[in-house]
Amino acid sequence: MDDLIIGGEKFSSRLIMGTGGAPSLEVLDAALAASGTELTTVAMRRLDPSARGSVLDVLRARGIKVLPNTAGCFTAGEAVLTARLAREALETDWVKLEVISDERTLLPDPIETFDAAERLVADGFTVLPYIGDDPALARRLEQAGCAAVMPLGAPIGSGLGIRNPHNIELIVEAAGVPVILDAGIGTASDAALAMELGCDAVLLATAVTRAQRPELMAEAMRSAVRAGRAARLAGRIPRRRYAEASSPMNP
Amino acid sequence: MPPTAVPASPRSPSPGTPYDLLLIGGGVIGLSAAWRAARRGLRVAVADPAPASAAAASHAAAGMLAPVSEVTYTEEPLLRLGLASLARWPAFAAELAADSGHDLDYRAEGTLEVAFGSDDLAVLDELAAFMRKLELPVERLTGRECRRLEPMLAPAVRGGLLAPGDAWVDPRRVTRALLAALERRGVTLIPARVAGLERSGEAVTGVRLAPDGGSPDGGSPDGGSPDGGVVRARRTVLAAGAWSGAMEGLPPEVLPPVRPVKGQIMRLRSPEPILRRCVRGSVHGSYVYLVPRGDGELVLGATQEELGFDTRVTAGGLWELLRDARELVPGVTELEVADVVAGLRPGTPDNLPLIGPTVLPGLSLATGHHRGGVLLAPLTAALLTGEAGDDEGEGLAALCSPLRFHENPRVGENA
Questions:
Q1: Do residue B307 and residue A51 have CB atoms under 8 angstroms apart?
Q2: What is the model's pTM?
Q3: E strands along B118-170, which residues?
Q4: Known binder of ligand: residue A183?
Q5: Weakest mean pLDDT among B2-6, B128-132, B230-234, B375-379
Q6: pLDDT tens across B103-145, in order?
Q7: DSSP per-residue codes, B368-391
Q8: How far, CA to CA in Å, does B155 sit from each of A36, B107, B115?
Q9: Does the interface ipTM go beyond 0.85?
Q10: Phi and psi (nearest 5°) for B363?
Q11: Where are the residues of the annotated region Disordered (chain B) (predicted)?
Q12: A26–B contact, CB cutoff 8 A
């Protein structure tokens, strides 16, 4: 399968994981291993990067690149501060930028997100912003210098799948940077659909960590992302109104 | 040896005689094990600069003995331990009350788990199905049925699950009672920090105390050499909670993979209890519990934060507790704030405790109890003292074996 390239870095897995919601570090570790992920995002609020035995140690032990995120921030100011603390602590200038507008929906605030993205790009960060499924905003963030765009399929943790596949296609069509479907994945077919729509990668956490058998669901997601990518590359057949015999009627 | 009402000999027969059992750590685990061992006639000592102090996780803990309502996917082994220990609690509480003369506020009226919104209700129903599969005795209630049991619940509560077998206790009363019982049983408290282990070859023969640690009554610690601050014991048990992973002088293959998991918790007070039983609830996906005491105290908890050895109480932590508790029980905002505190749970990679012998002869562990130290204290003490010697005990001991991380190395080792 072809490599994923974000900010000049190559990944052979197109499944990006989150760590939130895992019942224990051991369950998380097994799920990450089964997912085959090479890039995993970690919320930096309420995490001490220097503490021994934390989730960061799990990632380090598996050689998974850490993508710090700004989950829980409501303003550009908080997000920029959190990103800078993460850069200092983890020695990475990558950040998944997440600025939410309210606690009920956890939907991203487009204005604060754009504001923070501009400031972080100017500060030398590799910025991957979490956004709504808005093609116009995605284009503006790319123009502002973001390394990828991460539109949601549905609200975080909702497992509602991809509510507006058409918008995701529009974002993919226009994008010159990788498009990562982030949030809303409930089960394997959602992840496969994201890849069939042309997304370059899928980011998910809850669908795996809160599954009854997280390790098995992680394996399912890994297969789904691969299958979806392969289907996208292979090219689907046109949809037809009527049947077309697959074996020739006439010799 | 059967449990006996006769106290063990309160003072050592001769200076320098090793203790039968030495506990490093005077939290609920160390004190419980010391008490059970002393009841069985062993000579026991506990080393801790301040036993049962505010530093112990049990000081912050709410004291829910709720293995049924806290069960989650992937954690059936923890459920088995919790149920086994819950079954030991009534006798443990009765004997401790008798030995100490203290009331523990032990209550067994069950836990009511409630759901606030329709999403929370869907999760609750899925959980109920999981509990039925595990053959756990729970009862699914409507919102109105929940409010008949607990009239102070918000009308917006959509439904609930009653786990009638769950219980709770006041952990601060438990540790105070344990200290009183230990004194009556002649257990030596060594108010000093342990600087390291004493070894004779592979075997652990006791501990070395920190220089400025002092010793009881200004004399040398019972069983120790008079000059060196050394305490000798046939068996030493590391029960230092979140600090167990930072113990100096342990070889890497013995150092327990324990990390501190911060929990902020709040104690409110009202003239009369406003709840009859423990209420756990999910409010828009965020969990909170309310634990009532007989004296009108109401405990709200708890955050789970991976911040190392940080025990600062934060505005955000308390706000989240109050925000969710107020959704479930609006009346909490009228109560007096009695206490806010942050404790450090000893977390392990698989959320199961580490109890039993290590590869070093003479050294055992009793740590890593994470959120379940109070619940698991009776079982832990029984496993350490051999009271749980039956077939079931062996199965449970295997689940908790400290050797499991070293036979099959996985997470938390190369930290």
A1: yes
A2: 0.86
A3: 139-142, 159-163, 167-168
A4: yes
A5: B2-6
A6: 999 999 999 999 988 888 999 999 999 999 999 989 999 999 9
A7: --GGGHHHHHHHHHHHHHTS--SH
A8: 46, 26, 11
A9: no
A10: -120, 125
A11: 208-230
A12: yes
Q: Is A96 among the residues known to form the active site? A: yes
Going by C-alpha positions, the residue among A208, A120, A115, A194 that lies closest to residue A151 is: A194
Taking CA atoms, what residue in A is nearest to B306? A47
Q: Average pLDDT in the A25-52 region?
A: 91
The amino acid at B379? L
B284 touches chain A (CB under 8 A): yes
Q: Which domains does chain B have, with CATH numbers?
A: 1-107+167-257+349-415 (3.50.50.60), 111-164+259-347 (3.30.9.10)
Residue found under tokens 């000798």: B232
Average pLDDT over residues B239-243: 94
How long a stretch of residues is chain B? Answer: 415
**Distance of residue A158 Cα from the nearest chain B Cα, in angstroms:** 9
Is residue A157 within 8 angstroms of chain B, CB to CB? yes
Amino acid code (one letter) for B209: L
Range A4-234: architecture per CATH: Alpha-Beta Barrel (3.20)
CB atoms < 10 A from the CB of A183, how many? 27
More confident residue, A58 or B11: A58
pLDDT tens across B329-338, in order? 999 999 999 9
| pLDDT tens-digit map of B179-209 | 999 999 999 999 999 988 998 988 999 999 9
A114 close to A144: Cβ distance less than 8 angstroms? yes
Give the position of tokens 């077998």. B165
